[in-house]
Structures are given as C-alpha cells and as structure tokens.
Amino acid sequence: MKYSGFFLAFWLILLGTHVPAPSEITYPWKDAFIGALDGSNWCGLVLAARKDAAFAFRFLIEKDGRTADGRDFVYLVSDIGPNAPDGLYARLGFDLSLPILPERKNETPILIKPAKRADVLLLEWSRQGEGAVVGRLLVPKNVSVRLIQYFPWDFKGHYRRAPEGEIWGESRGAKPMASVLWTHRPGTPSTEGESPELALAFSNDDDRNIYFVAGVGDDPKSVGKRIYRYKNPRTIDQLLAEERDRYEKKRVTVEGLFAGASQAIANTLHWMMLYQPGGHRLYAPPGRFESGDRPTAGEDWLIGGWESFFSGLMLSVESARYASETIRSALLTQYPNGNLPNWRNRSDGSADRSQPPIGAYVLLKLFGKTGDRDLLEFAYPYLRRWHGFWKAKKADGRSRRDGNGDGLLEWGSDRELLPEKPAGREQDSSAEWRAKEESGENDLPSWDDVPIHPETGAQTVNAVDLNSLYTLDAWCLSQIADILDRTGERDAYLAEYEAMKTLINDQLWNSREGFYFDRFWDGRFSTRKAAANFFPLLARIPDDRRAQLLRKHLLNPKEFWGDFTAPTVSRDDPAFQDPANPSRQTWRGAIGPPVNYLIYQGLKAFGFDAEASEFAKKSAALFLRAWENFQLSPENYHPLSGEAAGRRFRSWGPLFALLAVEEYLDFSPWEGFRFGMINPEEKGILSRISIQGRRYDLSIAPKELILKEEERPIVTIDGGAVVRHFLYSENEVSFDIKTMSERRIRVDFLRKGKYQLLIDNAPKRVFSGEKIKFDVPEGHHSVLLQLLETLT
User: Fold this and answer.
1) pLDDT, tens digit, for every residue of 559-575?
2) I need a labelling partner for 393 at 20 to 30 A (CA). Which of 122, 128, 480, 643 fits?
3) Cβ atoms 564, 632 nearer than 8 A
C-alpha cells in the first residue's frame, strides 16, 4: 500500500472542524514563565518575567543537624505529583524520614513511597493571574525551614525587606522589573538592606506550615495590589483544592489496563521542564538532576539530541505547547552544517557528532496528533539540513558518514570540528569514544574493537541502526514535503528511500542467520545481535518473509524474549554473559526505553499486533512498578531481574508508559490514526486524549471496544480489534481492521443519510439512518462507508 498523501488527506478532512478539547491544555500567559524551572533547585520556583529578568526562591530544610538544599532534594523525593502545563496546580513531596546525606547522596536508600504523610514535606502551588503564584509548604515536625530568594543563572538584581514584611526584588535588565514575595509568617531575614540573595528563617513552632504569594511586574506597588487578594491561608487552601480538582477532571487518564500510565508520563515530563536562559523558552533536558547531564560545569542549560524528540512525543500526551517548545528548542541547537548535536549548551556542544536521526519521524507523528502545521513548517528546513548532514561532502571530497563510498552509513566524529579545549569528560576522549557517543548507545558491544578510519573519523562498519533510521528519515521527509506541497522534494526523498531499502537488504541482510547485521568495510558481517538491529522493521525495509524471521529472533528467549525484554544485546552474546558485567550496564544488555519504543513501533508498522501488545505490556510493567512504588523514572532496567538501573530521573524513562498509552490509541506515519487492541485480557479506559484538537475516549474489554469523540460513541466493536487509517467525516468513514475472529461493528455517523458499505472494495449493501451495524470476517479487511444521500 502507498501511504504518500495520507497525512495530507487526514489533515484536510479535519481542517475547519477543529473543536478544542479539554485535554488540550494551553498557556493562558503570554510572556512570564513560572514553575520549578531551575534544574538545581527542585524545591522552589522561578518567575521568569522577561528574557532579561528572572526571580527565584527555594526552600532549605534542617533536620537532626543536617541540611538539605538544592540537588539534595532529588534523593528525598517521594511524590512527583501533578504539574499542570497551564501552571494552575502542582504538587511535590519529599520523604524526610530518609537520611539527609549531602556528601554521599547516592547512598540515600530508595524506599517505597510512604503511605503516611507525617514525614513528608509537601510543596503545592498554583499560578493565578498574569505573573502571580500562590502556594504552601506543609512541614513535618522537628524540621526547620529557610526560604531563600535568589537570582537564577546569570540574572542580576537585589532583594530587600519592605516595611510591610514582604520581600521586594528588583532586576537589572534593560528595563527594571520587580518581584514581591509574601509569606503568612514573616520569618527572620538573613540581612538588612539590599542583597542579591536574602533568606528568611522560620521557627519550628505550632504553625509549622508556610503559605506564600509571589508576583512579578513593572514595580512592587502594582504587583502588591495585584496579589493582595490572595494573601490569606484560607484563600490559598481553597484555590489549591479547586485547581487540583479542575486539573484532575480535564487531564488525560488511563484506568484499568495500564492504570496511571498517562498520568505518570505527564507528571514526570512536566516536572522535567526547565527554563532556557538566553532563549526565554522552555525545554526538556536529558535528565533534570544528575551532574552527568552538564558536560560543562556551571552551564545554564543542556539540550540532548534524540532525548528531546522522545520528550516531545511524551509531552504531547497532555500539552501540544510543551511538545512544540521542546522540539523547537532542540532544533535551534543545530550547527550551520546541519548537525543536530549529541548535546549542546550555551557555550559549547558536540560539534563533531550528531545523534540518531529520529526527528522527521517524531515531527510527522506530532503533526498527525496535533495538526500543528506551524511547527511542521518551522521544523522542515532544520530536518532537511540534518538529513543532508550525514552524506554531505567534507573538504577532502569524502561523504561525512559514508567513508568508503558504498552508499551505506557509519557512526563517526569530525575531528576537525573539535574545539581546542574540549569540555568536561570530552577532554581526553578518543575518536572511538566520540563515534560511539553519536550512536546513542555508547557502550554497545557492537562497537567493541571497531576501528576508526583515520582520515574520515567514521567507524569502519556499516551500521544497521543508523542506516535504518536514515532510511526512515527519508520516507518521513517525503511525507512532510507532500503536506507542505513540495512535490520535487517529496519525489527525491521517496527515491532515496527506495534506494536505501535496496542497499540495506542487499548488503546488511545475512541470509544464513535470517537477520540484519552490521557489516565491516572488508565484507565481513558482525556477529553481534543488538536490539537496535530490529530498526529495519520501523522503516519497513524487510519484505514479509524477512519480517517474520526478525519476529522469530525477537521472540526467542535465548536471544531477546523473556519476562523482561528486550535487552540491548542478545542474551547469547558474550558481553551479556560476561561475569565482569553483572549489572548489564546501560547498552551491554540492559533494557533501554528508546530502543524498546522504536522496536514496538516497528512491530506495529508490520501489523504484529499480538507481539506488540505483549511487548508493550512487559515494557509498561517495568516502568509502572518503579514509578508507583518509588517515584522513579529510570534510565534502564536489569534484563534478568527487571530492577531499575542507571539515573533516577531520566527524561526518556516514561517511554515505556507511552507504549501503554499508544497501545490504546496512536497516530503514526505508517498506520495513521490507530486504535484498539487485538486481544485485550482485561478492561481498560483511556480518557480525554486529543487528536487534531478533538477529544477521544477509548474503552477496551475482551468483548467490547468503544471509541468516543467528544463523549459521543462513534465506533463500537464486539471484541478485540485493531483499527488503522481511521478517517471520520460527514461524507465518509473509512478504516482498515484486523481481528482474530468475526466481529460486529456499529458506526454512528455525523449526519443522517443513505450510506454504501464496501468491504475490501467490494460493495456489500446500502444503509439508511444515523448508525449502521455490519459484520466483518476474521483477518485483515478494509472498510469504506460512503454518503450517497443526506436524509432529513
């Protein structure tokens, strides 16, 4: 089947009938950003009024002679609660029964989330009006608190205690801005007069809690008038309760099967969002809290390559705006030569290397979900330059990542683009290490003992993963070009897609093993079976026979299948079995969210629905166990025990929960609008998910599937089924359906009329009315219902 033009058709059908959905949460504020937007200080708030003016305050606590401040709170967090993208409600809790170990943070035990709140420090806040926020800190017994006003990053200004007891701040931007902070208990200031940092100490008496109101504006008196009505603990309690309930009623939820998956995605990713000084925008970092996420000490922000695109997908579950901000921030890190770097911050970055090219695939998915044409038009030039980066000619006439000129790509590093003084861990890095970093899987056994070509800086092995993703990129760019009416570019990308498919199938398929392998320049196949070698499925590179052989390898428990799947390298690989590698660290056998996500999408692209469902179930169980019990968003998981491993709060952690949500309903480049499960074993409900501005609910059960649009049932099926390429308009309804047995389907139309039913292009019968019921046999079928005549 040819899918070129499908996205354009779907978008045109919905254009002009946009209905804002309650779950499509947007900002009510134009300029100011308010939230926990300083990565170093989770227990606090930033009020970024303008590009040149930002204010902040954080809480510091003392208990049993020890102090917790800044990143110390990372190891105490026990409740990563809601954080509405419009800022109207947020909650965060810290377990103060844990030991405070500022000098040995990693020794802090990870305990099950406490059931009782007696030892929990709870921070709640709500944005109210333009540039104002109210909140409260609920404080356990025997804990002392200090509130510290400071200027984040390199913003300048001063604070002082006003006669009324408030703290007034003034910025030193091009146009001075003011902040006002009120607390219901006055506290004892650390200094008199003006200071760039001012602390308030609160006694630990019967009234331990701290209520606060803060605002920003042109001058302190006008700000004070604006926030005056909020300066009452009862008012703040009422506002927090109302906004909490309002958010819970409009957010996306999952109940029953995969319960809590969408909420976990939103809670995790919304608390990841940080402010980018200098750009006056938000972004999602690779991981908010770990020092390893900042290659250069003291840098203001850090944006990672493919992590940002994955974050955009997850953020789109609740906030198209957050997704757009994150994608735009990532694209703006691009170097002039088209490189979207492995990482970049304000003053430095990996100019020598990129990361896996998933950008066009993600943008096409986002466009299908949100209909954000502005984002697509903004992104397309960046994506074209990034695609061109891989095969661009360097000064010596060689292709950048096709060092031997055979048309296939290798990971690598451009040594001529390295800075004179590399930053942080890059100072003593080798060409081999840098090339591995570009792959996104830097210690994957596939790269062990792979030489670097001294002249090109590329590995001397054609990589299955890179070539597959590059091929996918070409196809997705063709679809984007089609949407944007760039016919010539569409045709060129489609031709490249077909040429790359042929090359990969001819050169990287090992017919003896029935598997795609990396291949050295001298013609030898690598012997390493990596999970990333399933990526050809996602690009629809294999024919059906080869796809079935890949499926067989994936389901083999001696290779990739098992209770915990899929390890990044086959279980029978020497590196996996190496006794010196008991932890199966990151890419040497651990289960990684990015790889699993792309494998799942590949299974769905080939219609392996039963396998994809089981894969999603296994993946989601890993994340949801770590999230529900310990409030962790792990970097990876041990393949034998399923235990969380790596960094505690990695932005790509909830990709496993995204698999659960997308198992209900998704919009993907190959499948279009897809919903349903092939064989659901229990009941589940996905509520208030937004597709193209319309709100959808999907309930699934062993004997019934119901899709609702704006709370109105539109498709009902009497059992498990997967529906793809679903189009629903006043004039026609069409879809492909796959079932394991005969199914009865009911379709509710938008208008009363006379409709003709076609199954597999064969006319069946004509119906009259506002709804019809019909049967489809077991298997895979196409369904078309065409309006012949409108009835009154």
Assistant:
1) 999 999 999 999 999 99
2) 480
3) no
Please say whether the beta carbons of 648 and 702 come within 8 A. no
Cα separation, 389 vs 401, in Å, equals 9
Summarize the confidence of residues 435-447 as an average pLDDT: 95
Q: Which of 274, 207, 204, 209 is nearest to 56 (CA)?
A: 274
Q: What is the DSSP letter of 166?
A: P
Measured distance CA(781)–CA(775) in Å, rounded: 11
Residues 101, 72: Cα–Cα separation, whole Å: 8
Mode of pairing for the β-strands spanning 120-127 and 90-95:
antiparallel
| C-alpha span between 146 and 191 (Å, rounded) | 13
Contacts for 614 with CB less than 8 Å, ≥ 6 apart = none
> How far out from the chain centre does Cα 150 lie?
30
Neighbour tally for 16: CB within 10 Å: 6
Q: What tokens appear for 624 in the block?
A: 């949801």
State pTM to two decimals.
0.94
* Per-residue tokens: 215: 């605002």
**Nearest Cα residue to 258 out of 663, 629, 753:** 663
The rounded Cα 719 to chain-centroid distance in angstroms is 31
**What is the C-alpha to C-alpha distance for residues 484 and 480, in angstroms, rounded to an integer?**
6
Measured distance CA(311)–CA(302) in Å, rounded: 14
Q: Provide DSSP, 322-339.
A: HHHHHHHHHHTT--TTS-
Contact 150, 178 (CB under 8 A): no
Supply the DSSP symbol for 530.
Answer: B
Confirm if 407 and 460 have CB atoms less than 8 A apart: no
Task: Look up residue 524 and give its DSSP letter.
Answer: P
Between the alpha carbon of residue 99 and those of residues 14, 143, 761, the distances in Å are 55, 13, 68
Give percent above pLDDT 70 in the chain: 93
Whole-angstrom Cα distance, residue 529 to residue 97?
Answer: 45
pLDDT category at 100 given cuts 50, 70, 90 is: confident
Strand partners, 256: 684
Instruction: Count Cβ atoms within 10 A of the Cβ of residue 703 and give its class: 0-12 exposed, 13-18 middle, 19 or more buried.
Output: exposed
Give the whole-angstrom CA distance, residue 688 versus residue 254: 9
> How far apart are alpha carbons 497 and 515 in whole angstroms?
20
- CA dihedral angle for residue 688, residue 691, residue 692, residue 693, rounded to 10 degrees: 0
Number of H helices, E strands in the chain: 17, 37
pLDDT in tens, 243-292: 999 999 999 999 999 999 999 999 999 999 999 998 899 999 998 765 44
Q: Quick one: tokens of 335?
A: 């170097």
Residue whose tokens read 């590093």: 413
Q: Are 263 and 253 in contact (CB under 8 A)?
A: yes
Using alpha carbons, list the distances in angstroms from residue 744 to 683, 708, 717, 753: 19, 17, 6, 21
Q: What is the DSSP letter of 642?
A: -
Which whole-number Å values give the CA distances from 372 to 25, 324, 622, in the listed order? Answer: 14, 9, 32
Return the structure tokens found at 65.
Answer: 């002679």
- For 402, residues 6+ apart whose C-beta sits below 8 A from its C-beta are 390, 391, 408, 409, 410, 458
The three-state DSSP-derived secondary structure of 548-577 is HHHHHHHCCCCCCCCCCCCCCECCCCHHHH
CA distance 326 to 323: 5
Cβ atoms < 10 Å from Cβ of 332: 16
Q: Can you tell me whether residue 5 is helix, strand or coil?
A: coil
What is the CA 197 to chain-centroid distance, rounded? 35
Q: What angle do CA 153, 155, 158 make, to 5 degrees?
A: 120
DSSP type of residue 195: B
CB 47 within 8 A of CB 216: yes
Q: What is the mean pLDDT of residues 149-159?
A: 95
Please state the φ and ψ torsions of residue 389, each to the nearest 5 degrees: -55, -40
